[in-house]
């Protein structure tokens, strides 16, 4: 989800008036199951929208605009052209046929009315007076309708209501003389103004939503759970897998004398391990935890950033080891090397073949920069053996089990886990070479990940608690959700 959302499909495209919805045919009686599904879908949609507004500060609505070279774009263009050509034909007939134009004026009046605030009493009165549909219909019948006069009023009102960013587009309307093009442009700009109003409303609501977000999302998800009791099955499996791994880790560390010991991992440790799993989620695994679905796009983006940071730090480590670490002290070398790594690896994480090719190119580019740095420093040539080794080690980083990539990945994982446990980068262990060279990027990633985790824990803590009771407590015992998940469930 980047941070933008398309307008609901019920809204018409910006330059085409909306059509009235037809009533359901009498031969298709509604069923209880269909009604329940629609209600559930609305609940999920409202929950997702509210969550996006709260967690995504850059969230905004954008009008739907299909690519012009797509099938949808071509069909849309054909329909729009046919609509406006039909209007042109009606207005060009002798005498002019204003039936469709009157319908458009009614829609313009409705759209302008939707932009008015309760305090716009005078403007609303003017709108009702000038765009009096009964009077306009009488003018049509007597051949006295003046479309340009009405359009002038509409443009003036748009100018008084629009955001400053729309001033040039509203001014441009005054230069249009052809009625069809004028009406089409008015609808387009009104659509943009409607979007501006929606985004303004979202920004105004955000502070209030933030205050009620946890309670609202928790209540909405409870409604979903009431209608669909299996809505936490994947979540339970996700936590069970993390609990098994955490228990195995404890036994491996010798903290537990044997498999029959009563020592159990804490719910907080399990939950943190489960959250860390999301940064390495197999995209082909369809059983994504339901409680994290609304944040999946953000977590996937962080996962991609994590992969790139691990590769970047691995290349820096190899370069420092094989290319004489002293060159890292040269002014500007590290910055230039990081930029080269980022540029050549960008977009290569999705396909293994792309990553292989990118790493081959990167090996040559890094080697060239090392040679130039050594030449500038007067340190002599890099031995051919070291050149071949550096080139080969960088090209091998495409393998998930590459020892250098694995080592760096474990260190990064430890840093992010420490951020989750400590809540602040200041409490995390010191980052040594090469992670110190990407510390700002790591802290930024860890902070973004921590925000998602913290909010999720607050919302879903009470839903995780019963799952942890089944996982951790012997039959018959019980414990409060607060102690199990480490969060206040209020």
Inertia-based shape: extended
Order of neighbouring strands in the sheet with most strands: 1-2
**Binned strand content:** under 5%
Q: Would you tell me the structural class of the helices and strands?
A: mainly alpha
Cα distance, first to last residue? Answer: 29 Å
Structure, explained:
The chain has 490 residues and is mostly helical. It is 66% helix and 1% strand. The chain has helices at 32-55, 71-92, 99-115, 121-130, 133-141, 147-161, 167-173, 179-227, 233-252, 267-277, 296-322, 333-345, 352-377, 384-395, 403-422, 439-472, 481-485, and strands spanning 4-6, 60-62. The protein has a two-stranded parallel sheet. Strand 1 (4-6), helix 1 and strand 2 (60-62) form a beta-alpha-beta unit. Helix 8 (179-227) crosses helix 16 (439-472) and helix 11 crosses helix 12. The longest helix is centred in the middle third of the chain and has 49 residues, at 179-227. It is extended, with a radius of gyration of 31 Å. The two termini are 29 Å apart. The relative contact order is 0.08. The model is unreliable at 1-32 and 478-484 (pLDDT under 50).
